Amino acid sequence: MEDWDHFSTEQKLKTLLKLSTNNTKWGWIVYRTCYKPELDTAWATFKSMVDARTRQRIVRSDETDIADQMDWVFVEDAQGLEGASCDELMRRFQKWARAENPE
Questions:
Q1: How many whole angstroms from its chain centre is CA 43?
Q2: Per residue in 38-71, pLDDT tens?
Q3: Is the pTM of this model over 0.70?
Q4: Are 76 and 33 in contact (CB under 8 A)?
Q5: pLDDT tens for residues 3-37?
Q6: Residue 9: what are its φ and ψ, rounded to 5°?
Q7: How far apart are the C-alpha atoms of 91 and 51, rounded to whole Å?
Q8: 33 CB-near residues (< 8 Å, 6+ apart)
Q9: For residues 58, 59, 60 and 62, what is the CA-based torsion angle, rounded to 10 degrees?
Q10: pLDDT value at position 101?
Q11: 88-95 — which CB contacts under 8 Å span 24+ positions?
Q12: CB 14 within 8 A of CB 66
């Protein structure tokens, strides 16, 4: 694809989504690893801001329909994630990804 370097981020994403053979979603998975009660409001604000700002950027882009496939996953598990290491987060992500995309 010779024009790839000239595509916007949104055009690149749309192209990759079109190449997918299944009903592909895109986004990020975000793990909460600190559960101090005083951070609950900040966490809720963060989740809302991430979604809203991403959608605002897409609305201003040349590929507005990619918003239909956007899926943010926010994982909260105070028992299992409080202070989790990067290695533990990687293991959890890999397990989640396999479950979401069985071969």
A1: 16
A2: 999 999 999 999 999 999 999 999 899 999 999 9
A3: yes
A4: no
A5: 888 899 999 989 888 888 776 888 899 999 999 99
A6: -55, -45
A7: 25
A8: 81, 82, 83, 84, 89
A9: 70
A10: 76
A11: 89/31, 89/33, 92/31, 93/29, 93/31
A12: yes
